[in-house]
Structures are given as C-alpha cells and as structure tokens.
Amino acid sequence: DIIVEASETIELVSASVETQVNTGRGNAGEITVRGSEVPGSPVGAIMLNDGKILSTAKEGNGGDISIVARGYLPSGDSVVDASSDDSIDGKIVVRAPANDLISEVAALPVELLDTAALVASACGPDAVQGASFQVQRRLAPPLPPDVSAAWRPAAGTSPCLGEETLQ
Q: Mean per-residue pLDDT for 67-91?
C-alpha cells in the first residue's frame, strides 16, 4: 500500500504513483492521497499534469485509490486507473469539491491592440533615422562550418529558398 500525505499542494508533473502486479494472481495495493495534519484531512489541492496514479493488476484484483483534497485538477493527459486485466477492478474515490473553474477565470479585455499604429510609428516617416522592418523566410538552415566546399553555394548566392526582404 502507498500513502501520500501533504499539508499543502501535491503536484504530479510527468510523474506517477504506482502499485502494479504484472505477473501472477497477486492483488494490486491501495493508494491513498490525503492531508498529513490529521488523518483524512484534505490537502490544499492535487494537480496532475501528465500525472498517473495507478493501482493495477494482471490476474489479481486492481487496488483501491482514494483521493481527499480541497481541489482536484487533472489535465487531459493524466490517468487515474485501478483496473485488472482478468479480475475485479479496484474502486477510485475522489472526495473534493466540484470545481467551477469558469466562474473563477477572469474575463479578458475585449479591446484589441492596434498593431498597425505601433508598426507605423516605429517604421513610418516619423521614425528614427535608419529604422527598418525586415521579414525573412528561410527554408533551409545555414550550413555548418565543417561542410565540404563542394557542397557550399557559389559566391553571391544564398543557400536559403524563398528569401525576401521588406523595407
């Protein structure tokens, strides 16, 4: 069995908590994630970002997973699994308030930034002498210095395709 206790936030970022039985009829262990001050007290939040909490078995029973928190936020690529391939799946119990994240997200301003005015002031007739705006598109990376001279472009030509310069 695995017990994870914390008084604040638990973050699993590309990480896992696992108990697995891959051969034989053994049962997977139980996994409990909870607060540490008082047994069963909720931690601040549990966040899974490509995180995994697994209690699985091949032939035996899957283990139970218990998560107790004030907030539970799994990303779309996170996995919580208590399954068995050939026997009884374990239970997954999450005790956390339902998250209404839409009401918590601040609205973005509706006004859009006027980029035309910014470019005109930086590159227009009133701009500082010598200012310019260049757009270049390169479809081939520069050749490394150790490339043979036979493979280098002729003098005055460019190894890049589709290059353009606007001023």
A: 92
